[in-house]
Amino acid sequence: MRKLATVKLQKDNMKFSSGHFTIFSATxxxxxxxxxxxxxxxxxxxxxxxxMAFDYRHYKQKLIALCDQxxxxxxxxxESAHLQIEEHGDYINAHxxxxxxxxxxxxxxVLPMCNITVEELSRWFIQQLVKDKTELQxxxxxxxxxxxxxxxxxxxxxxxxxxxx
Length: 165
Fold this sequence. Notes:
With 165 residues, this protein is α+β, with helices and mostly antiparallel strands. It has helices at 56-70, 118-129, 133-138, and strands at 4-9, 15-20, 33-46, 74-77, 84-88, 91-96, 99-104, 108-111, 141-151, 154-161. The chain has a single domain, classed as Tetrahydropterin Synthase, Chain A.
């Protein structure tokens, strides 16, 4: 008989601090600001007679490394319909509604998303975790949910299921 368990991972070091702005329309956006984001995961997997689904350390380390990739950067959406990004020497210029927002290139990460929101960030984390299909199969992973929060009571979650393939 197949046994499933959902493992919840939420550690103090699964976090990152980044700047951003949310784009609401072609003419409206938030002011530049930042958050201390937290990340939590729920991973559903089959487990064996040893009573353990998989080595939790593996996904804790992956999540911490992904948080570290984003930590300390200003995040820009590379796929926004309302924001054009161009590199100019040591700068990245973000063009929005006739404004030019210059950023030092080494301070910015341009991410493959349409907006920098907790919804899109949770989707990005999922995309990073499910890239290696062999790994997912070896751990018998059936579903992963990632929740990204900016504060208690304000979060979004994205779920991937093995049947989504």
